[in-house]
Amino acid sequence: MNAENTQRNEKNRLAAHRFFCYLILILITVLCLFSFYILFINATRSHPDIQKGFSAVPGGSFWINLQNIFHDQNLPVLSGIKNSVLVSTGVAALSTYFSAMTAFGIHAYDFRFRKAAFAFIMMVMLVPTQVSALGFVKFMTAVGLRDSFIPLIVPTIASPIVFFFMKQYMESALPLEIVEAARIDGSNEFHTFNFIVVPIMKPAIAVQAIFTFVSAWNNYFLPALLLNSQQKKTLPILIAQMRSADFLKFDMGKVYIMIFIAIVPVIMVYLLLSKYIVRGVALGSVKG
Amino acid sequence: MPAATSVKKPASIHKKNQKKSISYAKWGYLFIAPFFLAYALFSLYPLLSTFYNSLFENYMNGLSQVGPNFIGLENFKTVLTQGDLSKYFKNTVIIWLMGFIPQFALSLLLAAWFTDLRLRLKALGFFKTVIYLPNLIMATAFSMLFFALFSDAGPVNSILLNLGAAEPVRFLSNLWTTRGLIALMNFLMWFGNTAILLMAAIMGVDTSLYEAAEIDGATSTQSFWRITVPLIKPIFIYVFITSMIGGIQLFDVPQILTNGQGNPNRSSMTLVMYLNKHLFSENFGMAGAVSVLLFLITGVLSGIVFLSMREGTLGKGGGKR
Lengths: 288, 321
Prior knowledge:
A: mainly alpha, B: mainly alpha, 4% strand, globular
């Protein structure tokens, strides 16, 4: 009798606890999504509508806002999208390919400075890019690469964090016997890397391609220092430009649709692939 | 974790490797060469050049350039004694703490709930997806969004007025609401990430420990504080320090929210905003000095992470799960 009672009490207590957890989780969900909800609503409303105050239902001006922003003379949004896609794709491709290559070099070969090389990469992993920005911008200016995408793409060949993730993945997914077997079959090492190792690494490359694409897409500090002609600017710079323009003169519908353009592609990709992305976060725990 | 690499491999492979290492070592160098070339050219050289620049008087006075003249450590003296560097350092730390403390508390709570075997919450995939979402949002766009939402005539004030507030809250003219908004954005962007890291660490703890504790009559709260927390302490250090390094780099959000001014009265001006200002006005001497100071701070902090990882303390929690 008594034991049954305590068991029932325990059950009730657990149910109450569970209810409390869900309540908090729902509150957090609302907190996370609230700002995006208003963004979606206001991106569909016209400037006068938005000025009237908050509304919970969308308006009908989405296409008009979109057209307005695309035809804005001072804000080259279309080329901004193109530039952002170009830079982010370049970064995703180079950083994943060369990080896998570096990881393979350290994973599969025994050479004298192997441990030192690994320790060096781990050591510089957390050094922020901002601290060398001065030298970097001066250097790029000196070689005439300022206002070009090269300084935003090529340096990501050295991406310590991506390297670390690839190395972790290789340890669990790339047995060295495979490399040995390819050798016996007469495959040259470089060929082995491209046609045997890279296909095995595909899941890791895909996850890191998403992460690097997104971080390049969102990157603001260096592009803002390097790119100065209007036609070269990426989306974050255009948003900053919008912010520094006199705000009251601005069509608020345009402001919201601009933010919409900058973040919705990322949200869409994320919702499609969230399972892999969330798993990737836990795997490559060395993300800031 | 270099030690772990060699340990994990079965002995037989290791031996085979050593036999062949003579003939294949050059491939190792070839494969890592692009990384080190790119690093030397685009990171190391600029870093050294930044150090070098910090020793020169070099700035724009109107349209004419002054310098570069070698002045030794004068820039550091100026930055440390005359500028408002200490004020900006304080701002940065305050804003970081305002975001980090609730972020860490909530992340730990969520991680504990998500991994609680007795609680068995449902729809975890959905909640994980939602809490991680803000991390991927463009910080500049997110900040611009908050600027629009919390402006004097924005939707938040409109809601507050509808709820019966007497007058709009001027979020961006007030010191603590401005800092609060920056901290809130940082919090939203990072708590999901931290929660997922902590969750991975908790799931790495040997479950037999919990079973033993349950047999001994421990409650979930007791096992959490007495078993989980001590065992995942290394991950706490990691989260704390990497968050601090991230906090020192705080830039996009306050830059856009305050239009680079750090308003009101430069109370939300951060270190990197200050650096950015010097870089834009081509004040290279001072920018160099600020960069070197930032490098020293982050260098010490990453040194701590590096050492704690070398000891392999992180390996179980974060590395492999």
